[in-house]
Amino acid sequence: MKANEGGIDRAIRVLVGIGLLGAAFLKLGVMDGALLGIVAAGVGAVALLTGIVGFCPAYMLLGLKTCPLKH
Description:
By secondary structure, this protein is mainly alpha-helical. It has helices spanning 7-26, 35-53, 57-62.
């Protein structure tokens, strides 16, 4: 897996992921089985994971890259 996310993209994904996971557990009732909480936790986990790893499978499928070019 070659990185396809730039630094700003990764930082935003990590922040959004943490925010969604926090909201899912603290406000949206993921532990009670609330659908909105489950969806928020899933999206948050994916955003956090892709932000940490630096690779987004959707970007690969669409041919997108936000990482800077290396010379």
